[in-house]
């Protein structure tokens, strides 16, 4: 306690010294402010330095207050420990006093017992009387004899009582000795406990003393370092003020001269101000125009970069991933759960942001369609892939997402607003009609579904018949489905009939999440076979349009019985699709295509021999953010898969000369009917043009600045 008081006194003295130094610093700062008010300077860098010094001073004051608070807390802890030690000492004194009183009482009782025993021993021995019958005639003698007998009986009674008292005193003595032994053991236990408590108290006091000394030393060293820094800053401020005084005098002299000139020439001042305002407004306008030009060029370069990225993705064979966000519907309900949790980037149409559990997560895809995007806008982005199947390429477009996210609407659409399936076939017919002068095309359509891991024909007479997937016997390694019905279509009317026939047989049921939930994976297989009449070149292209069943949580969808079994098969097949994507992304030697009928049927589309596009459908509702997050993460993983360049399925028949071998090559995804993207045909600027353009922009910025 004495050492703590000494340290406290030292710390109080140090605080007093720091307080005096702070007062001196405040006085110097006050003097500096007064000098600044007397001779103000515009845009002086020392104002910021003074502000920084003031902030440091306030920080030192706060730290001094914190040090005082810590000292007060340490004093309170020392006082509490001292009070506890005093209480323990008082209890020890009380216990010792009680022990002394008990020993005194027992010794008194022992002395009394010993005196009683001694008094009993000092009494004469009992006299045995021999009674004889003597005939006495005297009455006095008879009376004396009676009195003697009564006296003898009384003495015998007294002797018995004294023996009983002696026995009781011996018993009390034994019990007193037992009590004394117990009290001695209890006193020894109390003494041991007091010694242990005293040792603990000493250890705690020593630890507190060490902690207090360490805290005081740390606070003292930190205060010394900070005060040293403050002194150095103040010395710098003084030096700067000494160097600023001549500059201030010069500025004051110039200011007075300008003031006299302004007073003498007010008209010249007004004209100068007008010209300055005009120059400033002109410079601002030039800066605005330059900024607009730079923004326009930036957006143009962003579009060009995106086109180059798409071309790179096409050459690498990556799976292209488009995202589409459905609008908020009445099925989402009302309240916070139906709030919109998805936002979009105004400058980049490939980025969307998801608000999940209070945190914003960003995702970058190849293209993102907002809720207001129409079916026509979606199809414009995929029509280049659709038309490439005419040139002999395999194309696969599949929709992925949770149940109720709008996959079936995107792929099939409605009668008034058709989806990708019907629009793709209409586009194929228009392209075929445009090439009818040189080419003969045959378009066949097949439709199938995977229901509970069973492949069924939607266009066959027996839709319940299970089909199998097998390898082509021609040794090409391609997969085909024996017994799958193919319809040859020649017009849009044939397409509508096929769609109506297949849509009726597809399995859909009502769940808690979707009134018309697809309970199977639907596949529309379009095969385009072409023959060039002039060269004999034969091409075969296949377009797979897949509408996957939505992943669902059984707890939310309320599926039971057969619906539960369907949901389990759907989730299992989608999990197998995720395993395939993971294996492709990590370039594993074995890809588990055969773990599910869905992945086995999509093996041609996912193994590098097809142009593949995934349309991920998400819900913007707040209650579906967990499913939306999982779908977008899966889409990013799919986007990073590289399948390699796509090969064209073409073979030459008989030709009249070697010149017909020179078949014009097209880039993957291009078609004769698709127009070149804007800006693709422009020549890239040379390095000289770029340097001259950047130099002119820098000159404009310098002039406007």
Task: Give an account of the 3D structure.
This protein has 705 residues and is α+β, with helices and mostly antiparallel strands. The protein is flat and about 180 Å long. The chain is built from 14 helices and 18 strands. It has a domain at 320-640: Kinesin motor domain (Kinesin), CATH 3.40.850.10. Strand 3 and strand 4 (359-364) form a beta hairpin. Strands 1, 5, 6, 7, 8, 9, 12, 15, 16, 17 and 18 form an eleven-stranded mixed sheet that branches. Keywords: ATP-binding, Cell junction, Coiled coil, Cytoplasm, Cytoplasmic vesicle, Cytoskeleton, Membrane, Microtubule, Motor protein, Nucleotide-binding, Phosphoprotein. InterPro entries: Kinesin-like_fam, Kinesin_motor_CS, Kinesin_motor_dom, Kinesin_motor_dom_sf, P-loop_NTPase. It is a peripheral membrane protein. Minus-end microtubule-dependent motor protein. Involved in apically targeted transport. Required for zonula adherens maintenance. Belongs to the TRAFAC class myosin-kinesin ATPase superfamily. Kinesin family.
For the record, the CATH architecture of the domain at 320-640 stands as 3-Layer(aba) Sandwich
Counting H and I runs of at least 4 residues, what is the number of helices? 14
The CATH topology of the domain at 320-640 comes to Kinesin
* Corresponding CATH superfamily of the domain at 320-640: Kinesin motor domain
Strand percentage lies at 5-15%
Low-confidence residue ranges: 509-516, 654-705
Give the termini separation.
69 Å
Instruction: State the name of the first-level CATH class of the domain at 320-640.
Output: Alpha Beta
**Quick check: average pLDDT?**
77
